[in-house]
Design brief:
Helix 6 crosses helix 8. The protein is built from 14 helices and 20 strands. It folds into three domains: about 190 residues, P-loop containing nucleotide triphosphate hydrolases (Rossmann fold, 3-Layer(aba) Sandwich), CATH 3.40.50; about 160 residues, P-loop containing nucleotide triphosphate hydrolases (Rossmann fold, 3-Layer(aba) Sandwich); about 70 residues, Alpha-Beta Plaits (2-Layer Sandwich), CATH 3.30.70. The chain is α/β, with parallel strands linked by helices.
C-alpha cells in the first residue's frame, strides 16, 4: 500500500497537482473496491484523473496485451486522455484511435500493443473487426461521457464493442449530467454512483443581453468589448484577457459570426465538427496558449475538451435542449471559480422555459479588445525524435536570444511541437532558429 501511495504522489508531482479533490478521492475508493461505478461530476472537476489513478494502479506490469479500454465521444477527448496518461509517466503504453486519423497510423501504433487503448466507438469497433489481437485481457472498460456517445449515434458500435469483451471485470461510466438513463446493453447489475453533479454551480451567473437587431452581430461585439473592458479597466497590453466561447447552433452561423468578428478586428478561432482534425487541434492549442482568447463553436465544444478555465460563455443561439444549455454553461464557473453565461437575445424573442428568469446585463460603451500578445509557432519534430520541452526552450533562449518572458507554453506531440512566443519577437526569432537542428533532427519552424 505504501508503494501505491508513493507512486500516486510521484504522478501528482509530475502533473503539478498538490492533492486530490473530494470527488477524486471518493471515486478512487469506489473504483478500487467496486466492479461497477457511475461517476457524475461537472466538466472541469477532474473526472479523467479520478478514474485513471485507480485503474492504472491495478494494471498488470507483466501483461503485454490491452488491459483497459476507454471509450469517448470525441477525437479531442481521446487525445486529451492519451496526453494525460503520458504526462503521468507511469511507464505503461497508451494509444488513442479515432476517426479522421489514418488507419495506417493506428496499425503502426498498435503493432506493439498498449496497456490502455483510448478511442471513439466507431474507430475502436473498426479496429476490433480488422485486427487479430485478443480482447481476453481487457478487464476494465471506461465509458467516458457515455451519454454524449449515445446522443451522437454510437449506440450500435458500443453494443458491438461490449459483445466483443468477454472478460470485463470492472466498468466505469462517467457523465457531467445527472439523471441520464444507462442503456440495457451496458449490462450494469448493481453500480455504485458517485454523484457530484451539483458541485460548483452556485458561482455561475446567467444573464441576458438584449439586442435590437435580430442578427445580434453588433450586440455580440459590444458584449465582448464590454466583458474585456470590465476585466481590464486599465487596458494594459500585458493584462490577461478573459477567455470565452461563443456558442452557435450551425456551421453557417459560425462562418457569419467569424466574418463579422474579423471585420471588427477581434481575434478568435472557430471549432466545429466539419473541420479537419488537424485544424481543430490547432485551434485548441492556440486557445490554451493564449494566442486566441475567444472561440466560436458548436456544441462540440460544450464538453470533453482540454481547454483553460473560461471567464464567460455566450449563447449566440440557444440550444434545443436543457441538457446542452447546462453543458455549455458548465464550461465556465468551474472548480468553485466564478463565471458568467450570457444569453444574447433579440428584443422580440421569447426564451425557452429552461432558461428561467435571468437578470439583464446593461452594456457599457467599450473599445474592442487588443490582439493577443502571443503567436504560435509550429516545429516539425517531437517526442519520437527525442526532443524535449527543455530542448526547445534552450534553442529559443540561446540561439533565438529570447528572454524568459518572451516564451509561453510549449505543447509537445509525437511528431511535432507548438510554442507560444511573443508576437513582437516572431520575425526576429524565425531568422535565427528556422531550419536548424534540435537533437539530431533538422526542423522547420513556422508561424501558424
Amino acid at each position: 500500500m505504501i508503494s501505491g501511495i508513493k507512486n500516486q504522489k510521484n504522478i501528482l508531482d509530475k502533473l503539478k497537482i498538490e492533492k486530490l479533490n473530494e470527488m477524486q478521492e471518493q471515486a478512487q475508493l469506489a473504483i478500487h473496491s467496486q466492479p461497477e461505478v457511475v461517476l457524475l461530476s461537472p466538466t472541469g472537476t477532474g473526472k479523467t484523473l479520478a478514474f485513471l489513478l485507480p485503474i492504472i494502479a491495478e494494471l498488470d506490469s507483466n501483461c503485454e496485451e490491452i488491459q483497459v479500454l476507454i471509450l469517448v465521444p470525441s477525437r479531442e477527448l481521446a487525445i486529451q486522455i492519451e496526453q494525460v496518461i503520458r504526462e503521468m509517466g507511469t511507464g505503461y503504453k497508451v494509444n488513442a484511435v479515432y476517426g479522421g486519423r489514418a488507419g495506417s497510423k493506428d496499425r503502426a501504433d498498435l503493432k506493439h500493443l498498449p496497456a490502455i487503448l483510448v478511442g471513439t466507438p466507431g474507430r475502436v469497433a473498426d479496429r476490433l473487426r480488422r485486427d487479430d489481437y485478443t480482447t481476453d485481457f481487457i478487464k476494465t472498460l471506461v465509458l467516458d461521457e457515455f451519454d454524449k456517445s449515445l446522443e451522437i449515434g454510437f449506440e450500435e458500435e458500443m453494443r458491438e464493442i461490449l459483445e466483443a469483451l468477454p472478460k470485463i471485470q470492472k466498468k466505469v461510466l462517467t457523465s457531467a449530467t445527472h439523471g441520464i438513463e444507462i442503456p440495457d446493453f451496458v449490462r450494469l447489475r448493481n453500480p455504485i454512483t458517485i454523484d457530484f453533479s451539483d458541485e460548483g454551480k452556485s458561482l455561475l451567473e446567467i444573464k441576458s443581453v438584449i439586442s435590437e437587431s435580430k442578427d445580434k452581430l453588433e450586440s455580440l461585439v459590444d458584449l465582448i468589448s464590454h466583458i474585456n473592458d470590465k476585466e481590464n479597466p486599465n487596458r494594459e497590453e500585458e493584462q490577461k484577457q478573459p477567455l470565452g466561447i461563443v456558442f452557435c447552433n450551425f456551421k453557417d452561423s459560425i462562418d457569419r459570426v467569424s466574418e463579422y468578428l474579423t471585420e471588427n478586428r477581434i481575434s478568435h478561432g472557430c471549432f466545429y465538427g466539419g473541420m479537419e482534425q488537424k485544424d481543430r487541434e490547432r485551434v485548441l492549442i492556440k486557445f490554451r496558449n493564449g494566442t486566441h482568447n475567444l472561440i466560436v463553436a458548436t456544441d462540440l465544444a460544450a464538453r470533453g475538451l482540454d481547454i483553460p478555465e473560461l471567464k464567460y460563455i455566450v449563447h449566440y443561439h440557444l440550444p434545443n435542449r436543457k441538457e446542452e444549455f447546462t453543458h455549455r454553461n458548465g464550461r465556465t464557473a468551474r472548480m468553485k471559480s466564478d463565471g458568467t453565461a450570457f444569453v444574447l437575445k433579440w428584443r422580440h424573442e421569447n426564451l425557452p422555459d429552461y432558461v428561467g428568469n435571468i437578470a439583464v446585463e446593461e452594456l457599457e460603451s467599450a473599445m474592442v479588445p487588443k490582439a493577443s500578445v502571443w503567436n504560435t509557432l509550429f516545429i516539425s519534430g517531437g517526442r519520437k525524435d527525442k526532443i524535449s520541452k527543455g530542448d526547445i526552450a534552450g534553442l529559443f533562449f540561446k540561439q533565438g536570444q529570447l528572454k524568459k518572458d518572451d516564451l509561453g507554453s510549449i505543447e509537445l506531440k509525437s511528431d511535432c511541437a507548438f510554442v507560444a512566443v511573443k508576437a513582437s519577437k516572431i520575425n526576429q526569432l524565425l531568422t535565427m532558429v528556422d531550419n536548424t537542428r534540435l537533437k539530431k533532427k533538422k526542423v522547420r519552424i513556422s508561424l501558424i
